[in-house]
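User: Okay, second chain of the day. Same drill as before: sequence in, structure tokens out.
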Amino acid sequence: MTHSPTPWTITEDKTSSFGPSYTVRDAKGKWLLNDTLYYPSAFSREDADFIVRAVNAHDDLVKALGDLYAVVWGECPSLLNEDSGGDASLDMRICELLSKAKEAQS
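Assistant: Same drill. Structure tokens below.
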């Protein structure tokens, strides 16, 4: 299953009797999340901005990490091998994160 298409955006409704309300929409304008569902603990504009920034950057960050990982393994694998003074735990964390990201996309 894939997530809703990016970029996600935020719309603000100032007509709510509870104060400003924020709706997160996907690239097609589909409603994804609205803070009024969580009243009286609605999320703030800052929270909505954070959610949208994270979602919009996620795929590019995963691709860049995968590309960088491939370059490091191809050019200087000792950086990820503790026998050579590198950081094997970093290697394992990167592999785990890339695996989780791929699982989430399928």
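The chain has one domain: 9-105.

User: Thanks, on to the next one.
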